[in-house]
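Meet the record:
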Amino acid sequence: MADLNTLCARMRYWCQTANMGYSQTDRWHFDPAGGNCDCSSLVIHCLQEAGFDTGSAGYTGDLSRNLTSRGWTRLPADGHPMAGDILLNDADHVAVYLGDGLLAQASISETGGITGTAGDQTNGETNVSPYYDYPWDCYLRYGGDMPTAQEIAEAVWNFEQNGVKCRDRLQGTDEAANAAAERVWTFLIQGVQARDRLYGLDNIQTPQLAATVAAQSAALEALAKSVGTDPDTIAASVEQAVKARLATLRITVEGDQS
């Protein structure tokens, strides 16, 4: 697992304990008994030893691009680095801040140039030194492992809102939503459920209508008996009269002609 303390410890080891010289032509020669590196190969090597993913980073110029896509943030070089920060001048140099005012780096070969013999010939080709402003273009600071695409998808899929997971809403198994729909469906309006009104099964209106029909039938029967006529005959006469009247009706539909 990536660890900044391990990064600082490995930088300190290669710069103080191991016998490492500086050479850009022999820059991946990590041999504690007598090896060579340059500033960027040292930092990349120690990052990998500490468990960090360095992508395709291979030199100072592509460190920022590779690391900022892997959990590192590019910050202004304000003179207040934190332990584990990578001190970066994009074109020329890179080091690691160890904390307590110290940094670790690969500096220069024994010749004062960019090539040299394996091993530290001057006791300073690789070194731990007081912090200085190179100047640095930025500090690269680690903020944590970036989640994978699969991890992000899982987090979204299992995201819970109001007690319901996103996946349940998408799959139509949202118990809360179903319960809400059922509450609307069975909502009482003057003692009648909403679905009954929609289906024409209004338990209030139906009894009222039945009572009205019964009362009218009783009145018709009483009228027929009072005049000595068969109720069925009167009912048939009323039906014929209503039909005849309806046949004479003329219905005109007018609309706005403007």
Q: What stands out?
A: The chain is about 40% helix and 20% strand.
